[in-house]
Amino acid sequence: MTVSEREKMASGQWYRCLDDELAALRMAARRAVFAHNTTPPDDRGNITPDLLALLGSAAPDARIEAPFHCAYGVNIHLGSQVFINAGCAFLDSADIRIGAGTMLGPNVQIYCPQHHKDPALRKDGLEIAHPVVIGENVWVGGGAIILGGVCIGDNAIIGAGAVVTRDVPAGVTVVGNPACDISLRSA
Predict the structure, then answer these.
(1) pLDDT (tens digit, 0 to 9) for every residue of the chain, 187 residues total?
(2) All structural domains of the chain
(3) What backbone torsions phi and psi does residue 115 show, to the nearest 5 degrees?
(4) Which of 67, 73, 58 is nearest to 24 (CA)?
(5) What is the pTM of this model?
(6) Which residues belong to the active site?
């Protein structure tokens, strides 16, 4: 039995992103995102119907400001009262789960995929994706970047512009590149 590239992607294996099925899924996401981003604010509501139908799940009161970008959409899960500000980009080749009450500032980027380090395999589109889990009541400052495989605990704060490369415990504030706990920084 042959395993599809989509199945490999979903199970956390190396997969080829240059695949017809995955390209069709990305095109569906681009269409839904286009509809969301070009709908007048008074008509958009929290999330346009096209984008809402695409997402893996979203609470009725979750809100995504325009413009927004996602790779697939189907791997995005938003809890109650999640707020995603303008300019955010989610490369959701794996699950992105955002807990209730979490707020993302403008231009936050979440990158689940990682391309292969071997140039020939990278050129062939080989990549692997790792999920991102953001807990409840987290505040992610504008321009922060969160890499695949990261879990951010409840009530954490991610400073503006931080690059989050590893897990952040609950209630901790991290800043910088790479992001680190502010209580560990020397004065």
Answers:
(1) 899 999 999 999 999 999 999 999 999 999 999 999 999 999 999 999 999 999 999 999 999 999 999 999 999 999 999 999 999 999 999 999 999 999 999 999 999 999 999 999 999 999 999 999 999 999 999 999 999 999 999 999 999 999 999 999 999 999 999 888 887 765 5
(2) 5-184 (2.160.10.10)
(3) -75, 155
(4) 73
(5) 0.94
(6) 115
Q: Which amino acid is at 152?
A: I
- Cα separation, 178 vs 38, in Å, equals 35
Look up residue 74 and give its amino acid. V
Q: Which helix (H) or strand (E) holds 51?
A: helix 49-54
d(CA 6, CA 66): 28
Query: CB-based burial of residue 2 (10 Å sphere; 0-12 exposed, 13-18 middle, 19+ buried)?
Result: exposed
